[in-house]
Specification:
441 residues; alpha/beta; D-Maltodextrin-Binding Protein, domain 2; 22 helices; globular; Sugar ABC transporter substrate-binding protein
Length: 441
């Protein structure tokens, strides 16, 4: 599942969300001071971003306004993008552009007839600087709707360098080395992993990395489309491999019980906070931003990462998430919205946010020096170098009932598996039953 922003994770209640919506919609919008081809036109953009992410995206919108003369307004959608957009369309107030964080939601929008295909200019620009896999994830029934602008690298393991130095271990290069290093870390006084089991989406990411490496991209794609059953032996094998971590208290700080009480920000705090309780935290490149912003760590210095290691004879996985920009055909200024997507397809747009930090682009033409630090440069280079071997977060491709609902589907079943990983076959059967119901087959 897509990683919610830290602000979203910590927000509580509908009142908080409503206040945030009102405050954001009223202030800080990009309003050009000079004329241009779109002078007098307003482009409204909706997305899940809050806090620093929203602030930095507004810098991109400001650059678009400076080029075109358009006024831009960003409105936070909340995590349930589908419900938000549906209500706006029904009320005759559709935003021009929506940043969609899930492949499944993009497909839902396209099948509902809400979207306008990308312009020829946007599609041509994207074809020149994005790996074909990104077009595949933005395409529904042969029509190219979604331009991937922001990506996440979800195959990074972050660590506290002092913990590895104290234990005398190096960055592991394989799954077996990872387990051995983790046990050595525990023996030296600090358990290996802070696991954010309270947030089921982190557990889906664990599974996806193991499965992609072990089973390979072809089976990964089949499972993501539910053309392969979750009872397939490859799934049982991956769950059995994952159980090697979940069942070992030297590898999971505090054991399963504590992990199930730990949310994503809490897992980062356990490694990089003032009172460290673990040496490693697996999640995406965004861990570095939380370590920096919340705990004063410097990515690349006292907060480092290594690639998620290959499992068995497989290759190192590169699992990604991302936000696709789409244009709603019922919006008042849909043509101006498409003009924004033409801009977002360029490296110029990506480099605005890259310089501000907390951002990775799948665009191969973004200059490495545009990124704010060496860690961002390294993760971006790894993502781009993976080319068509990148695979989008599997749970984000699934119907929300299976891959994106708290307390249900894959999230809950993997939490149950963390609590008791003794029977991978039973878990695989439960996953298949839930998937079949959600996919309707």
């Amino acid at each position: 599942m897509r990683r919610p922003s830290l602000t979203t994770l910590r927000a509580t209640g509908a009142l908080t969300a409503a206040l945030a919506l009102a405050l954001t919609a009223c202030g800080g919008d990009a309003d050009p001071k000079s004329g241009g081809e779109l002078a007098g036109t307003t482009v409204t953009v909706a997305g899940v971003w809050t806090g620093g992410e929203q602030k930095n995206f507004k810098k991109v919108l400001d650059a678009f306004s400076a080029k075109t003369g358009a006024k831009t307004v960003f409105v936070p959608s909340g995590d349930n993008v589908s419900t938000f957009v549906g209500s706006k369309i029904e009320g005759g107030n559709a935003p021009e552009v929506v940043l969609v964080p899930q492949v499944g939601v993009l497909r839902q929008f396209a099948e509902a007839g809400w979207l306008t295909p990308l312009s020829e200019k946007t599609a041509t620009t994207a074809a020149g600087n994005l790996a074909p896999v990104w077009k595949e994830y933005g395409t529904v029934d042969g029509a190219y709707y979604g331009l991937y602008f922001k990506a996440a690298h979800k195959s990074t393991v972050w660590y506290a360098p002092d913990a590895l130095e104290q234990a005398g271990v190096a960055e592991p290069k394989s799954w077996d080395e990872l387990l051995a290093s983790g046990r050595t870390l525990a023996d030296s006084g600090r358990p290996a992993f802070a696991v954010a089991g309270e947030d089921g989406w982190t557990l889906t990411d664990w599974f996806e990395n193991v499965y992609l490496s072990q089973a390979g991209p072809e089976k990964y794609d089949l499972l993501a489309r539910h053309e392969l059953k979750w009872t397939d032996p490859s799934v049982v094998t991956a769950l059995t491999t994952l159980a090697e971590v979940f069942e070992d208290e030297r590898l999971v700080a505090g054991g399963a019980a504590e992990a199930l009480r730990t949310d994503f920000p809490g897992s980062v705090e356990k490694v990089f906070g003032p009172e460290p309780k673990a040496a490693l935290v697996y999640e995406g490149d965004f861990v570095g931003g939380v370590a920096r912003d919340e705990f004063g760590r410097k990515p690349g210095e006292d907060a480092k990462f290594f690639p998620f290691p290959p499992v068995g004879s497989g290759k190192a996985p590169v699992v990604s998430g991302g936000d696709a920009a789409v244009v709603l055909k019922d919006a008042k200024n849909a043509d101006a919205g498409m003009r924004l997507l033409e801009f977002l397809a360029t490296p110029e747009a990506a480099e605005v946010w890259a310089g501000a930090g907390g951002f990775l682009s799948p665009n191969k033409d973004v200059k490495p020096e545009a990124y704010a630090d060496d860690t961002a440069r390294a993760t971006a280079a790894s993502l781009v170098a993976a080319g068509d071997t990148v695979r989008f977060d599997m749970s984000d491709q699934a119907p929300a009932a299976f891959g994106g609902t708290k307390g249900a589907g894959e999230w809950k079943l993997l939490q149950d598996f963390l609590r008791d990983p003794s029977d991978p076959k039973r878990t695989a059967a439960a996953l298949e039953a839930a998937a079949a119901k959600a996919y309707g087959n």
